[in-house]
Amino acid sequence: MSNPLLIFSPIQFVYSAPNPGQAAAAAAPIAVFVGVTGISFAAFPLNKSIPLALVLAFALGTGGAFIVDRIIRNQLGHLLVEPATPPAESKEESVNKKQGFLSDIEGPTGTQLEIVYGVFGYMQVMSACFMSFAHGGNDVSNAIGPLAGALSILQGTTGGAEVVIPADVLAWGGFGIVAGLMMWGYRVIATIGKKITELTPTRGFAAEFAAASVVLFASNLGLPISATHTLVGAVMGVGFARGLNTVKTETVKEICASWAVTIPVGAILSVLYTWIFTKLLSSIL
Questions:
Q1: Would you say the pTM of this structure is higher than 0.85?
Q2: Phi, psi of 81 (to 5 degrees)
Q3: Three-state SS sequence of 64-132
Q4: Disulfide: which of 77, 108, 110, 205 matches 124 by Cβ 3.0-4.6 Å?
Q5: Tens-binned pLDDT, residue by residue, of the chain (285 aa)
């Protein structure tokens, strides 16, 4: 019997369908339409008129769904016409199955698995863009937050008034996060993508979409959370869904230790830098 908490999961719907490849190809445009429409309406102040904002959001969602459907049909159309004839599972494969609350869902194999992974490969590109948008909306804001406090003093708006941050300052914040990703981000990418648990396109999509939803919701509430911490939790979640033994505990311990260390180290360095700059400025002025 399926887990009742996962009845409306699109991945469960695809994996449980008689023809998983066809189900994935049919579900992808619908998921894109719902996602793009919801994100467009919630994240972008398209217009003060709610009806017009809804029309624009639906238009963007429809356009995104159409584009994704065309890409999937063009790239995977030759596989979609093949019948669903999954090969029988060997005894060894059955014994080696991980035990988790998703273990009762029989996944696709053969050509069907290739189609599902192909569809969710495109879906994961979109979920990565969604995660990047949420990451920029929250983490760039975290970096610009102290600068906003300093600008409020220069602007004389320390009484709780809204601080206006110039667009070029925000652009520099975005440039900084992109530069850091280009120079050192590959190390974090390798840790999250390979060293926590085994990720497939379906699992990666689920983790990215879940993490991006949490980060975007927190940004809307003005909460400065860590997008990286959220994504690590989401990746661990898709691992735990297949069984506790599928998550590499040593990597998780290292990540948690790094989280615990960064708070006191950041505080100590902040005190040190403040003392140095105070002494330096007092001697100059």
A1: no
A2: -85, -10
A3: HHHHHHHHHHHHHHHHHCCCCCCCCCCHHHHHCCCCCCCCCCCCCCHHHHHHHHHHHHHHHHHHHHHHH
A4: 205
A5: 334 344 345 666 677 777 777 888 888 888 888 888 888 877 666 556 777 878 888 999 899 899 988 888 888 777 766 655 554 444 334 444 445 555 555 566 777 788 888 888 888 888 888 888 888 888 888 888 888 777 777 777 666 566 677 788 888 888 888 888 888 888 888 888 889 998 888 889 889 989 988 988 888 788 888 888 899 999 999 998 888 888 998 998 998 898 889 889 999 999 999 999 888 888 886
Place of tokens 């926590």: 196
Residue 281 lies in a domain: no
Domain count of the fold of the chain: 1
Q: Is residue 280 part of a domain?
A: no
